[in-house]
Specification:
The chain is α/β, with parallel strands linked by helices. The protein has helices spanning 16-32, 46-55, 82-87, 98-103, 108-120, 133-137, 141-152, 158-161, 182-200, 202-207, 221-225, 242-251; strands spanning 5-9, 39-43, 61-65, 92-95, 124-129, 164-168, 210-213, 232-235. The chain has a single domain, classed as TIM Barrel, CATH 3.20.20.70. The radius of gyration is 17 Å and the shape is globular. Bound molecules: 2-phosphoglycolic acid.
Amino acid sequence: MRKKIVAGNWKMNLNLNEGFDLAGSVLKMVNAEKSKLPGVILCTPFIHLSGVSRIISNSIIETGAQNCSPVKSGAFTGEISAPMIKSTGATWTIIGHSERRALFCESDELLLRKTNAALEAGLKVIFCCGEVLHERESLKHFSTVESQLADGLFKLEAEQFAQVVIAYEPVWAIGTGVTASPDQAQEMHAFIRKLVAARYGEAIADDTTILYGGSCKGSNAAELFRNKDVDGGLIGGASLNASEFLTIITALKV
Ligand code: PGA
């Protein structure tokens, strides 16, 4: 069964206590909500993971990192490995966010290694893909996403792929206030599902969760989530405010 998910990506925001306060507020609101909710994941900075995992334990909320090292341990100053993330109580990590691809020069080949490392440590993966503006304007958005998935993700075996959620995040929509239209999101999500079907078969494609990310907020979440191939969202800025984040969570019908 395809799982519906709303994941918050806090990026490099909030000091330790601010993060704990936000997690506590989200927990309180989620627990008070009467309607059936989708899966909720808080992807926090590394420093928050252990504490937030403790705060949200015994709830429907899970925690995740935003990145991980491709190797398990060793002399890699400043890096955090997947087994270290797992030991905090986190169950997810984002891999391949466009900010990592662009600002930290992460290649598809490196992202495949990171994904493998995360899965091997028992983490589930939110794997991001998406085109930049000039690629969309020159009608290369489908081929960009296709090659990101082919080179960074589709080398996984089917059992590994079952632990992966795909997030489509058009780079021109991230943090810009410009959202993909519901039609643009649906069109790309359907395309991605077709690629998954070609690689892993219809049944697995049907079970694959595909999230939309990029300026998704309380006011536009419902129209994006109404599309049949949009299974939830990866939320940046709007996940830093508990009530806005809850509006998005409850906009996703399960
Ligand atoms: P945004 O970020 O919601 O602030 O646009 C989404 C993301 O980068 O995951």
